[in-house]
Design a protein that fits this description.
globular, Rossmann fold, SDR_fam, 258 residues, single chain, alpha/beta, EC 1.3.1.9, seven-stranded parallel β-sheet, lipid biosynthesis
Length: 258
């Protein structure tokens, strides 16, 4: 049993009960962690606070607003965290976005602005968050992000997001090298397809789910709880020697050929 009592975990990307961030938050809460959950905008406040109420039944949890595309909001969030908790031990970056047209249109039609937005929100935000978090991780800790197999292989209707995820995976490695001397580990989970709010923007998503069920060694898709379990392990001392890695949680789909 992994015990995170006395540990503070900051989780970005809380959207609703179907989000991967929520599945991770559940596992961290069960392990006794103190949760700091971040939602993007005022529009999401009510739902985020409702989820906080459920997650905080037994353990401490608070919600803060933070748009990770704005450095001033990231700085303000971590200033609040420093004042409230003093130190943190884990950060989960479960944030990604590209304008809808950049995903559904032919990749050749990717616009300069759409490319910029996808990489700013989905990739650069990890660097910005890590930079703000590092001073509060005085005893080392774990930073974790979420990627997808579309970073390595072409998936229909994924387009510029696949390119952003490839950049994100490279960023994980460079951050791991940069933060390693401080005892801060940086890793990513490459989760299989899950029916989240974000997944609704991917055309023919059900075909991807069906392909995984057919080809994956376990003959099924993963759920948020399984991703949460892997995240809990990577955030714990059991993974103290693991950094710069991409861990697949996809029922083995990535190992298959045909």
């Amino acid at each position: 049993m992994i015990d995170l009592k006395g540990k503070v975990a900051v989780i970005f990307g809380l959207a609703n009960k179907r989000s991967i961030a929520y599945g991770i938050a559940q596992k961290f809460a069960e392990a006794g962690a103190t949760l700091v959950l971040s939602y993007q905008s005022e529009r999401l406040r009510k739902e985020a606070e409702g989820l906080i109420t459920e997650l905080a039944q037994e353990h401490s949890a608070k919600a803060f607003q933070c748009d990770v595309s704005k450095d001033e909001e990231i700085d303000a969030l971590f200033a609040q965290i420093k004042e409230t908790y003093g130190t943190i031990h884990s950060v989960v970056h479960a944030v990604a976005f590209a304008p809808p047209d950049e995903i559904k249109n032919d990749f050749l039609l990717t616009s300069r602005e759409g490319f910029r937005i996808a990489h700013d929100v989905s990739v650069y935000s990890l660097i910005a968050v890590a930079r703000a978090a590092a001073p509060l991780m005085e005893s080392g800790g774990s930073i974790l992000t979420l990627t997808y197999y579309g970073a390595e292989k072409v998936f229909p209707n994924y387009n510029v997001m696949g390119v952003a995820k490839a950049a994100l995976e490279a960023t994980v490695r460079y951050l791991a090298a940069s933060l390693g001397p401080k005892g801060i580990r940086v890793n990513a989970i490459s989760a299989g397809p899950i029916k989240t709010l974000a997944a609704r923007g991917i055309g023919d998503f059900s075909k991807i789910l069906d392909a995984v069920t057919e080809r994956a060694p376990l003959k099924r898709n993963v759920d948020q709880s399984e991703v949460g379990g892997a995240a809990l392990f990577l955030a714990s001392d059991l993974a103290s020697g693991i950094t710069g890695e991409i861990t697949f949680v996809d029922c083995g789909f990535n190992i298959t050929g045909i």
